[in-house]
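Listing S7. Sequence submitted for prediction.
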Amino acid sequence: MRILKFFIYNKSGSVLVFAIIFLGILSMTTLSFAGLAISQTKLGEILISKEYSLQIAESGLNYARWRLAHNATDYTEETKTLSDPEGGVIGSFKVSFTPPSAGSPAEILSHGWYKTNTGLERILEAQYGRKAFTFYAFLFDKPVWFGGSNVDGRVHSNTGIRMDATGNSSVTAAQATYSCPALHACSGTKPGVWGSGGNQSLWKFPVSNIDFNGVTTNFGTLHTLAKTGTGLFLPQNLSPKGFDLNFLADGTVQVYQVNSLDPPVKSLYFNGSNSVIRNRSIDIATETLLQTYTLQPNDLIFSERDIWIRGVVNGRVTAIAAFLPENAGNNRDIIISQNLTYAAYDATVVLGLIAQRDVMLSLKVPIDMRIDGVLMAQKGFISRDCYDVLCTDISNSTVDPWRVRNSITTYGSMISKEFSDAEFRWVDGSNATISGFDTNNNSYDPSLTYNPPPYFPLMGDADFFSWQEKGKNE
């Protein structure tokens, strides 16, 4: 009997122990599920808060754009609270600005947070301003012909394009049709963009015209800036022929006074309507060093005479050759006489060249030439004259050693008002090079899309260039 009682007693105790263990496990499981539910609820609230914060930050950017559109010089920081008449405060945004400088766009930072959750704010950064002409790798007011193998970057003509090369970006013309000039080995009416080039799905015409008139207005402003102490001003009475700018890799520029030029030679160029033979020289014979100038951040060089350019650029600078007031007989040119390269290719170095009339390559250029920079001919063209007897009807042994060069490599952008030769090559009926460069390699500097050379002319209406999210407290 005692044995039975012992068994019953122990059996009852075992059931109790199992019951307690079961209840403990059930409680722990219940608590875990409850904790998970609470965590999921909190996570959901965080995700909702972060999503609302992003949308509020976007509202801040749109508000900043609206404010600058109504007052382009108001860069004061501002915080605004967004409210719902039914539900109270939604959240707030704070917008701050970095004003534009030397042609660079304004930068806007927008911090947005939901209700009072400032610890979950989202930060958006945007660039706001007008695009520069350097949005295009090649931008021309008149017709242009690309006959090489490849073209890098956006191409636009306000008239028409013969595209026998393969482009890797948009190729656009402002006209639906145009009269193709004999200089481009064609005649009659052609579509806005036509030819045997590849990637024709990138061709589009007609599109909006790009206005060159703003560049003329810009000259007056930049002339005043340079003359009153911004950058380097080179007045016309300082040199009889012009100035030779030799850029050095240490960030300085040797400024030479050009005293005399080589004897003139015959060459041919196209003035927009006709092929014209001229007798002149644009190669330097003698010069004198005037000064060595140290480039400043986002610098400006303004010359009232023609300028020659060469060397290794280390800095961000725009060089202008122009005489004011505007007069057709006094328009100034820029001549590239030797290799012109960058000290670095990381967007810290950029050169803008703006000629009042033409940007030209001289006769005595290197056999393998490289040009880094933005070339802009505000009223004229970008080209190297034809020095062959087929062009001038005159045989001249002086030019023969320099007439045909091997290759030219360009990195940057080309912009001109008149007919230009983006490949710097003249050919005969069998497509053989008779003057200029046998081969051409062009590359667009991608940093130019939204970060042009200092003081470079702009186009179109102001808008966002791009926006991105920045990390919290970045």
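Caption to Listing S7: primary sequence and predicted structure tokens for the chain studied. The longest helix spans residues 2-70. The first strand starts at residue 78 and ends at 84.
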